[in-house]
Design brief:
Blueprint: H1 7-23, H2 30-48, H3 53-57, H4 61-70, H5 72-80, H6 91-102, E1 122-124, E2 139-142, E3 150-153, E4 155-157, H7 167-180, E5 184-185, H8 193-196, E6 202-206, H9 222-229, E7 234-240, E8 252-253, H10 260-266, E9 274-275, H11 286-299, E10 305-309, H12 314-327, E11 333-337, H13 348-353, H14 358-371, E12 379-383, H15 389-397, E13 402-405, H16 407-413, H17 435-438, H18 443-467, E14 481-486, E15 489-492, H19 493-496, H20 504-507, H21 513-518, H22 531-535
Parallel strand pairs: 4-13, 5-6, 6-7, 7-10, 10-11, 11-12, 12-13
Antiparallel strand pairs: 1-14, 2-3, 8-9, 14-15
Helix pairs in contact: 1-2, 6-16, 6-18, 7-18, 11-12, 15-18
């Protein structure tokens, strides 16, 4: 039988004996003896333990395998993958954010690295008569007919909770938002002192855990909500129905991140996984959802109020849309979160295989509101892997009024995509509650980078619009974005997708597969599946 798998262990034993003998006469050999003694002890433990067959069969050698496996993502990211591989963001995308955050040269030499003849390559067509836009401070009015309307930038910080991110990261994001006059979404982790410290505009997200406005049982409490909503910085209220990274699951803050301070702000138990309920208790039907939105709007003194969702069952979204049409209780805005999103912890199956990607989800929401003739009364925001001006242009061309970014602004803070957000060991101090890590994040410097990233991205968006002969991103439509669908075929998004006409749903069910399947049976008084969907389950054992 081959002894090669024990070779490292045997060599360590022999070296321990040899260096031990030398060390008796020359103390300079003592360090070598200590090293081989440690390796010998570790190898002996490997042979004696019974939990890992690999360690018993390959004492010492198994640890080299474990070590290489642990740094596999870093090896691939820095040495193996090409600049354009998106896992989840390519090196080119990260470099673009870093350059714009630092306000250094972001031009590139010698032509594109993109395969312009590859399937799914996209571009925006330019005009023979480029426009001249004096300002890149593009804005959209939300809740214009409310007592306290808000003029939002078309590029803002997506929902990321204090808890998922460090106190220093929250401070820097909010200060950057203050300087650039754009908003900072709190995420569902509540309105913390760090969000309010620097005076930047806030969108307060209310999730199913009602953090910051709940009682001990996790139920919504009006008086607590009114106190938080009364802050002048809080410009809008957002009810979170679901989020892209884990739709239908509820937010997750691992126990390692639930410090005493976070527990006090959220109203939960310290050192225990903080998992939001998968469903709300303040409402149970589409109509009740809209009534809750209206209730929050009134309690906030008339601040624009809406909801965020990741699209799942189409009939549930259609039920909400029908409730809007029937009641005329309208949210001021809807934020569509794509399944490709995610900044913190999420179960593997949820982050990989649950929810509709942003493009299809956005178009479904946009189409439905257009078809009900409600689109001009409800604004739409969108989030999902947005880091560049072209990402913003494409998303707005598909129906959004503005865009949010989470991970893009994390990169601006210095995130290196180490994929350790859920471990509390973030190497850059962005996604950790360990003060030994986050206290080294310089808030002043990182706030400048957040501001720079926003400003330089909007400057690039202005240049794109000028090249296309447009005056404002609101003029972008699906006809402006082209996509290669094969090596010899190109289609505009307007040709690839079915876009409804204003009021079309009021007259008939359009020739659109999803509407044909689910619109007629969707209900404003229930999220329940249509009868024909339930019928498909007949014959299964329960």
């Amino acid at each position: 039988m081959s002894l090669s798998r024990f070779s490292a262990y045997l060599i360590s034993l022999i070296a321990m004996v040899v260096t031990g003998l030398y060390a008796r006469h020359n103390l300079q050999w003592l360090w070598a003896f200590a090293v081989f003694l440690g390796l010998s002890i570790l190898g002996t433990i490997d042979l004696a333990q019974k939990k890992s067959t690999l360690r018993r069969n390959y004492p010492l050698l198994a640890h080299f395998r474990f070590g290489l496996e642990s740094i596999g993502p870093e090896i691939r990211q820095y040495f193996v993958e090409s600049d354009t591989v998106e896992t989840p963001f390519s090196r080119l995308e990260r470099a673009l954010v870093y350059q714009r955050a630092k306000s250094v040269n972001d031009t590139r030499p010698f032509g594109t690295l993109q395969d312009v003849y590859g399937v799914d390559y996209e571009w925006i067509n330019h005009s023979m008569r480029p426009s001249a836009i004096p300002s890149d401070d593009f804005r959209i009015d939300i809740g214009a007919d409310r007592p306290k309307p808000y003029s939002a930038s078309v590029f803002n910080i997506s929902a990321m909770s204090w808890g998922a991110l460090s106190a220093a990261a929250i401070r820097a994001l909010n200060e950057g938002a203050r300087r650039g006059h754009f908003y900072h979404d709190t995420g569902e982790g509540s309105l913390s002192p760090y969000h309010l410290e620097n005076g930047g505009d806030i969108v307060w997200e209310i999730g199913s855990g009602y953090f910051g406005c709940r009682n001990a049982e996790g139920r919504f409490v009006e008086e607590k909500f009114k106190v938080g909503a009364a802050h002048e910085q809080v410009r809008m209220i957002e009810v979170k129905l679901s989020q892209g990274a884990k739709p239908g699951h509820g937010g997750v803050l691992p126990a390692a991140k639930v410090s005493a301070e976070i527990a006090a702000v959220r109203g939960v138990q310290e050192g225990v996984d903080c998992i939001s309920p998968a469903r709300h208790t303040a409402f149970t039907t589409p109509m009740e959802l809209l009534q809750f939105v209206d209730r929050l709007r009134n309690l906030s003194g008339g601040k624009p109020t809406g909801f965020k969702l990741a699209i799942g069952h189409a009939w549930e979204w259609f039920g909400i849309a029908k409730a809007m049409h029937e009641s005329q209780i309208l949210p001021d805005f809807i934020v569509v979160d794509g399944a490709e999103g995610g900044t913190g912890a999420a179960p593997a199956e949820f982050i990989d295989h649950v929810g509709v990607p942003m493009h299809e989800a956005l178009m479904l929401v946009h189409n439905t509101l257009v078809g009900l003739d409600l689109r001009d009364r409800i604004r739409i925001g969108a989030a999902g892997r947005i880091v560049s001006a072209f990402d913003i242009a494409r998303t707005m061309a598909m129906g959004a009024d503005w865009c949010n970014a989470g991970r893009g602004f994390m990169f601006a803070l210095g995130c290196i995509q180490s994929l350790s957000c859920h471990t509390d060991r973030c190497p850059t101090g962005v996604a950790t509650q360990d003060p030994r890590r986050w206290k080294h994040l310089d808030v002043t410097d990182k706030a400048t980078r957040v501001h720079n990233f926003h400003q330089n991205t909007l400057h690039a968006l202005r240049d794109l619009l000028c090249a296309a002969g447009l005056e404002h991103p609101g003029e972008l439509g699906p006809e402006h974005i082209l996509r290669r669908v094969s090596p010899v075929e190109v289609r505009s998004l307007a040709a690839l997708y079915r876009f409804l006409k204003p009021g079309e749903l009021l007259a008939h069910i359009p020739d659109h597969a999803v509407f044909q399947q689910f619109w007629a049976e969707a209900r404003s008084d229930s999220f329940a599946a249509p009868a024909k969907v339930s019928a498909l389950r007949i014959g299964k054992s329960v």
